Amino acid sequence: MTLKEISEKTGFSITTISRVMNRTGYVNEETYRKVMQAAEEGGYFQKKKNTALNNNIVGVIVPDLSNPFFGAVIKGIKEVTETMHKEVVVMDTSEDFNQEKRALALMQSMKLCGLIITPISDCGQGGYEIEKMLTDLNVPVVLVDRDVKNSAFDGVFINNTQGAFEITSYLIQKGYSRIAIISGPRYSKPGRERLKGYKNALEKYGMTPDEKLFFEGDFSLESGYALAEKMMLQGELPQAVFCCNNLMTMGCVKALAAHKVKIGKDIQVAGFDKLDLIDQVMDLKIATVDRPTVEMGRAAAEILLQKPKLPESSVIRSGIRMDLMPKLSVYE
């Protein structure tokens, strides 16, 4: 039984069901009783208990193994699983919903002790379907980086809004007023939150957002390249561009170089997630939002394997849902 099914059975909203399950916010005693009764009758708690703790495999599903961010997260996961004598099986969904469903179906056939996943989408019909498939695994599930809307799964996340706010504020403080953004997809939590942080910074400094400077990508290098070219074709070049993940930053840098646009002179570039290739190989000193990626993997594995040695930088939300704070890395 999923939260959506409990909602349909009781008539309460999924938000209310989530408040009851996560013990967050206020619900009256009668609502609490009805929700818990429906969950018990539907076997919701039995599924949570049936975790097959003696199994030896931790499943990991990520949307893009070519992204160094996920490589670092997996490194953190393995640092923990190796000490617990668990094996890790990793699957890549290539940001494709059908591949995500196939990966979950394959994980269903394995004897997992738990699953760590970065889902593609956190909303809409796809989100509901993935929530049901995750629940049907009957093992602990920990989300990393992206959420499943209104779910009760444990998770480790980054404060995307704050990170994007800080780096946009930094660009404004450096004197840049026309700042473009290559955002992530709005169907994902990081995509929406980083765009929100960018807009919040503009608002704080009394700047009017210009829709012509908004470009929505899909977190791939190819979209960063294509959108940077689109940005250049509009005529007047922005003074700066904020790319909302490392691969889109790389694509943007590649496109600017192909058109002989000099970073730091003709335009400034800022990114979310540091790329060693840009910093060390290309020797481009751009400002970035750095995430504690290995730490995110460690925290997810520790939560999954019930070894909650949580880092001091974490903020516990509801149940075990953590927000880790990124830091601003500048080139001065």
From TrEMBL:
Keywords carried by this UniProt record: DNA-binding, Transcription, Transcription regulation
Database matches in InterPro entries: HTH_LacI, Lambda_DNA-bd_dom_sf, Peripla_BP/Lac1_sug-bd_dom, Peripla_BP_I
The keyword DNA-binding appears for this protein: yes
Entry-linked Pfam families: LacI, Peripla_BP_1
Gene3D superfamilies assigned to the protein according to its UniProt record, in alphabetical order: 3.40.50.2300, lambda repressor-like DNA-binding domains (1.10.260.40)
Molecular-function GO term, any one: DNA-binding transcription factor activity
Stretches assigned to the HTH lacI-type domain: 1-55
Protein name as annotated: Transcriptional regulator, LacI family
Species of origin: Enterocloster lavalensis
